[in-house]
């Protein structure tokens, strides 16, 4: 299974974010999964990819040429797919992914996961969509989604695929238990 991971190109303020990125990369490798990610070796992206590579995982980076032409550090990856635009990068990462996980990140991470949630809503994608809610990082987002659900803008079938997991172990169990088109109530309305 290819796990597409979205996350910050910086480290973030909480050292637990880097610990979770490392643990996620190690889990991906240990379980024989592949990693699909944004391609660079900086921030949380670099940590998750480095740990996956060290564990022997097949890692695919998808990176715009303007980043490749800059001084941003790169890993020596088994596969690096250069693209022209961020939109092309996002489309390829979705196409290659079987499950989608967001570590803590900024606006780019939120934008990428919003695309996955929209695809789930439109039934274009049936895959786990997991926010790794390290130390409550995504609590406000979950509360907002609960508000959307209470206002009838999010439907019940989406709950089985949009999930908030407090640890990498919880995310791993969610992926291992996931079945296509299943709608278990992992995400309960507030």
What does this structure look like?
- With 190 residues, this protein is of the alpha/beta class.
- It is built from seven helices and seven strands; from the N terminus they run βαβαβαβαβαβαβα.
- It has helices spanning 15-30, 43-54, 65-68, 86-96, 107-121, 139-150, 168-177; strands at residues 2-6, 34-37, 59-64, 79-83, 99-102, 129-132, 162-165.
- A seven-stranded parallel beta sheet has the order 4-3-2-1-5-6-7, with helices on both faces.
- Helix 6 (139-150) links the parallel strand 6 (129-132) and strand 7.
- Helix 1 (15-30) runs parallel beside helix 2 (43-54).
- The relative contact order is 0.15.
Mean pLDDT: 89
Strand order of the largest sheet: 4-3-2-1-5-6-7
Q: Summarize the helix and strand pattern as letters.
A: EHEHEHEHEHEHEH
Please identify the structural class as seen in this structure: alpha/beta
In short:
With 190 residues, the chain is an alpha/beta fold. The protein has helices at 15-30, 43-54, 65-68, 86-96, 107-121, 139-150, 168-177, and strands spanning 2-6, 34-37, 59-64, 79-83, 99-102, 129-132, 162-165.
Ordered list of secondary-structure elements with their pairings:
Blueprint: E1 2-6, H1 15-30, E2 34-37, H2 43-54, E3 59-64, H3 65-68, E4 79-83, H4 86-96, E5 99-102, H5 107-121, E6 129-132, H6 139-150, E7 162-165, H7 168-177
Parallel strand pairs: 1-2, 1-5, 2-3, 3-4, 5-6, 6-7
Helix pairs in contact: 1-2
């Amino acid at each position: 299974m290819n796990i597409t991971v979205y996350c910050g190109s910086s480290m973030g303020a909480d050292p637990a974010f880097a610990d979770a990125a490392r643990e996620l990369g190690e889990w991906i490798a240990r379980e024989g999964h592949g990693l699909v990610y944004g391609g660079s070796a900086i921030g949380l992206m670099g940590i998750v990819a480095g740990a996956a590579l060290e564990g022997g995982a097949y890692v695919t980076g998808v990176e715009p040429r303007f980043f490749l032409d800059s001084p941003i550090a790169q890993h020596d990856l088994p596969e690096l797919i250069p693209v022209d635009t961020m939109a092309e990068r996002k489309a390829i990462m979705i196409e290659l992914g079987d499950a989608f996980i967001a570590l803590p990140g900024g606006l780019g991470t939120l934008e990428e996961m919003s695309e996955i949630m929209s695809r789930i809503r439109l039934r274009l994608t049936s895959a786990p969509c997991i926010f790794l809610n390290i130390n409550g990082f995504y609590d406000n987002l979950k509360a907002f989604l609960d508000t959307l659900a209470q206002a009838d803008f999010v439907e019940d079938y989406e709950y089985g695929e949009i999930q908030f997991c407090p640890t990498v172990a919880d995310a791993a169990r969610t992926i291992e238990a996931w079945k296509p088109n299943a709608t278990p109530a992992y995400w309960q309305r507030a």
